[in-house]
Design a protein that fits this description.
The structure holds two protein chains of two kinds. Chain A is an alpha/beta fold. Chain A has 13 helices and ten strands. In chain A, strands 6-7-8-3-9-10 form a six-stranded mixed β-sheet, with helices on both faces. In chain A, α5 packs across α6 and α5 runs parallel beside α7. Chain A is globular and about 65 Å long. Chain B is α/β, with parallel strands linked by helices. Chain B has a domain of 74 residues. Chain B is 38% helix and 22% strand. Chain B contains eleven helices and ten strands. Classes of the chains: A alpha/beta, B alpha/beta.
Chain lengths: 293, 271
């Protein structure tokens, strides 16, 4: 009975854990310090995880380990295991990994380069050698999904920053990855365009079940949609919990996390002995609590 | 007369797109100004007119009474330092040290002064360990600090920061705010172009709102950010403390300027 239970639990874990990082350490060639120091992290399918920490904390290195750039492109000391959708990343080719994980860069200029939006989106699927109709279908589908059908024949360099970001994201989604990594996706966008992108991420997560790992400094944008906030410091994973748990922990400030003003205020009001309900994800939620006092 | 004056400035790009339409405004010596607005609103085009990188298609820009059309950008650069959004467009030396001293040498500072300024800049911006390194090995955030260090080293009268907080963590942002306060107390004129409304809120500068090449709002930060229709039409989000204030049923006269102001008001009210 017990064995059966354990077997079924293992089965469940296999089904729901999309990314498993076990005791991962990495040191770039010629570097003295380990960029990653014994990291353990499991990401469940269908979740949105935000990765935060000061510059140089190891966030970008961790992303490279997830999409296989490390160890395939960056030489160094690699210890531990990264398993993505059942495949050991260090032993899986970049082509196969590209169908499991997509990366959206900070600057879409680095990512879009074709003469028209639809050609650009088709580039990845074409490289997979998919049939023509399949490619056409995928391109049309993602353009509809991201609301960029009217841009299909436009040249990417004529587009606004927000539109470019959407086109780059469309190219990533057309590969149908289970996991999408966003590296500071909003840093070049104005606040409204940034919150539109965040809304889009939320929709893709709910409607298509895509799992997201997002590196971002502007946490106030993402706390309303994130399931989890992981904080890194000097190559170590130092905090891991729901955004509410992490942002109300006094340690967060010490790790250089930009704790949104409303989270800071909430903690202060609790200290003052006020009885407040759940941790607010947005200013409106805190205002509702205060209005009831 | 103000230090910087824009009179009826219109700027049309070579491709025919109008980036600035009939801008008339001025910036006084010692003033702190934030410029907000969506991407493409003309913010960066506006600040490029201050050091003469761009000259108006029509209208005039004067700095210290000098029409920017009458002098070279090199001449204006001595009094106006701009740290651009993308540091890769700005860094070109083979080492961090040479990057910082480049302008100092160009402006003919004495070697002893150059050394002193260099040491200060490296220390202040946490770049000491990279002194001999190529700027190319720096992270995005470090590159931004280097551009700022290079500009502050020559001590210009006007400092323009274009999106200074992009890629900076909370600790670096706090340091940036400190630098702005320090420059302010030294009587510098500081102009900050930024999407980071939380950062601007902590500084409470005069705030200029741009939309489609025009100035659509100008006034104290607290007043402008609280003007919801204006913020909405310019596609600028309001800082969290302003959003909170707007949702409160009972509230003080104006929005909370910082977390501790909100804390003490809510504390008093719930007694």
């Amino acid at each position: 009975m017990r064995a059966a239970l354990e077997a079924s639990r293992d089965h469940v874990i296999r089904l729901t854990t999309l990314l498993r990082i076990e005791d991962l350490s990495f040191r770039y060639i010629d570097a003295e310090r380990w960029a990653l120091d014994h990291i353990d992290l499991s990401i469940e399918q269908g979740t949105i995880t935000v990765l935060a920490g000061q510059s140089g904390c190891g966030k970008s290195t961790l992303l490279r380990c997830i999409n296989g750039l490390i160890p395939h492109m960056y030489p160094g000391d690699y210890r531990g295991r990264v398993t993505l959708d059942g495949a050991p990343v260090d032993k899986t080719g970049m082509g196969e990994l590209a169908q499991k994980v997509g990366l959206l860069f900070q600057n879409p200029e680095n990512q879009i380069f074709m003469f028209s939006v639809e050609r650009d989106i088709a580039f990845g699927p074409e490289n997979l050698g998919l049939p023509r109709e399949e490619i056409r279908g995928r391109v049309d589908e993602v353009m509809r999904l991201l609301g960029i059908v009217p841009l299909a024949l436009r040249a990417p360099h004529e587009l606004s920053d927000g539109q470019k970001q959407r086109v780059a994201l469309a190219g990533v989604i057309a590969m149908r990855p289970k996991l999408i990594i966003l590296d500071e996706p909003t840093s070049l966008l104005d606040p409204k365009t940034a919150s539109e992108l965040v809304g889009l991420v939320h929709r893709l997560n709910r409607e298509l079940g895509i799992t997201f790992v997002i590196v971002e400094h502007r946490l106030e944008l993402l706390t309303p949609i994130a399931d989890r906030l992981v904080v890194m410091h000097r190559g170590l994973k130092v905090m891991d919990g729901t955004p509410a748990e992490v942002l109300t922990n006094p340690l967060a400030l010490g790790y250089g996390i930009a704790v949104p003003p409303v989270s800071m205020l909430y903690v202060d009001l609790l200290k003052d002995g006020l009885s407040l309900g759940r941790v607010p994800a947005e200013p409106r939620e805190l205002a509702e609590e205060v209005n009831q006092l | 007369m103000s230090l910087i004056e824009f009179r009826g400035v219109t700027f049309v790009h070579q491709n025919g797109v109008t980036a600035l339409s009939d801008i008339t405004t001025s910036f006084d010596k010692g003033e702190r100004v934030g410029i907000v607005g969506e991407n493409g609103a003309g913010k960066t085009t506006l600040v490029k007119h201050i050091n003469g990188l761009l000259k108006p298609t029509s209208g005039t820009v004067t700095v210290n009474g000098t029409n920017t059309r009458d002098v070279s950008t090199a001449h204006l650069a001595r009094s106006v330092g701009i740290a651009f959004q993308n540091p890769d467009h700005q860094l070109f030396s083979d080492s961090v040290e040479n990057e910082i001293t480049f302008a100092l040498r160009n402006f003919g500072f004495e070697e002893s002064v150059i050394k002193k300024r260099l040491d200060w800049a490296l220390g202040f911006f946490g770049l000491e360990e990279y002194r001999k390194s190529s700027p190319l090995v720096l992270s995005g955030g470090e590159k931004k600090r280097l551009t700022l260090a290079s500009i502050l080293a020559w001590d210009p009268e006007v400092v323009v920061l274009d999106e200074p907080t992009v890629g900076q963590d909370a600790i670096q942002k706090e340091k940036l705010a400190e630098i702005v306060r320090m420059l302010h107390s030294a009587g510098k004129t500081i102009i900050i172009v930024s999407h980071d409304v939380e950062f601007l809120w902590t500084l409470q500068p005069r705030l200029v709102v741009m939309k489609q090449g025009r100035i659509v709002g100008d006034g104290p930060c607290a007043k402008i950010m609280h003007d919801w229709p204006l913020m909405e039409s310019a596609r600028v989000t309001q800082p969290q403390l302003v959003q909170l204030y707007d949702e409160l049923q009972r509230r003080p006269e104006g929005p909370f300027l910082d977390v501790s102001a909100a804390r003490s008001w809510i504390g008093r009210r719930s007694e």
